[in-house]
Amino acid sequence: MKHILVTNDDGVLAPGLLALAQEMRKLGRVSILAPDRNWSGGGHVKTLDRALRVREFLLADGTTAFASDGAPSDCVALAALGYFKEPIDLVVSGINVGANLGHDVTYSGTVTAAMEAVIAGVPGIAVSLETPEHHVGEIDFGIAARAAGKVVRHAIENGLPAETLLNVNVPFLKNEEMRGFRLTRQGLRVYHSRLDERTDPRGRPYYWIAGDAPTGVPERGTDIGALAEGYVSVTPLHLDLTAYRALTDLNTWAWDEDSENPFFELLVPDKSETPK
Ligand code: MN
Q: How many angstroms does the Cα of residue 96 sit away from the middle of ligand 1?
């Protein structure tokens, strides 16, 4: 039986985490270790300059969960390095309120938790539910949880490719409106950030990074396109951020014009090692 770590970035008491944990319990033995507060947009964090504390919580259904004062990636590191005294076989992060698409993955605590899993040598899957910007009232995580269950079951049966995490995004649709699953690549997010400068009571300026929620280019084959068409998007990601095409381009620069200085020659990548 697989030992599944469930974590998130919305905080241990977020209803999306409970829905995910309940679904994961059908597939394995579940341990929960998540941040004790909301870390949305917190990115990939490694806390090195202070101690991490872990407290026990009871979730709404009576489940025991643990919460740390670190980031989602810290929670994964804690678990992978032995907090539960038993190895973790799989990390599932979510269900996040709001999609994580395109460049969002670098900001997302939900996705960076799954990235930390990959670094720890454990398969990682991030699950996010596209949620309308000004949604009021309770969110139904049922469909997203079932989608997560399906992806995780396949990942357990087949094994994820090495060094790979899955970024799963579920559209905000009713069951009968869902069209299925699509394997996708990252699309292009369009951010509408704007600086809101104000003055504090002592006359000093302060700033909010404000503006409208990001949109995206709904290109076919991308995560953004899949959601726009009513599909669950499954994007395999890896942490190799090398821009391989740029490597070829940079190799045409005149690096060796200072050829009396061997340092510059060392910078030039060997053409045979440049992937196509
Ligand atoms: Mn979040």
A: 5
> Does this model's pTM top 0.85?
yes
Q: What pLDDT score was predicted for residue 7?
A: 98
Q: Which helix (H) or strand (E) holds 54?
A: strand 54-58
**Strands 54-58 and 64-68, bridge-based pairing:** antiparallel
Which CATH architecture group holds 2-242? 3-Layer(aba) Sandwich (3.40)
User: If you compute the radius of gyration of the chain from its CA atoms, what whole number of angstroms results?
Assistant: 21
Whole-angstrom distance, CA of residue 73 vs CA of residue 76: 5
Please tell me the distance between residue 98's alpha carbon and the centre of ligand 1 in angstroms. Answer: 7
Cβ of 260: how many Cβ atoms within 10 Å? 8
**pLDDT tens digits, residue range 173-185?**
999 999 999 999 9
The count of residues in the chain is: 276
CA distance 231 to 71: 30
For residue 205, report the phi and psi dihedrals to the nearest 5 degrees. Answer: -75, 145
Expressed in angstroms and rounded, the spacing between residue 254 Cα and the centre of ligand 1 is 45
Q: HSE on the CB side for 107, CA within 13 Å?
A: 13
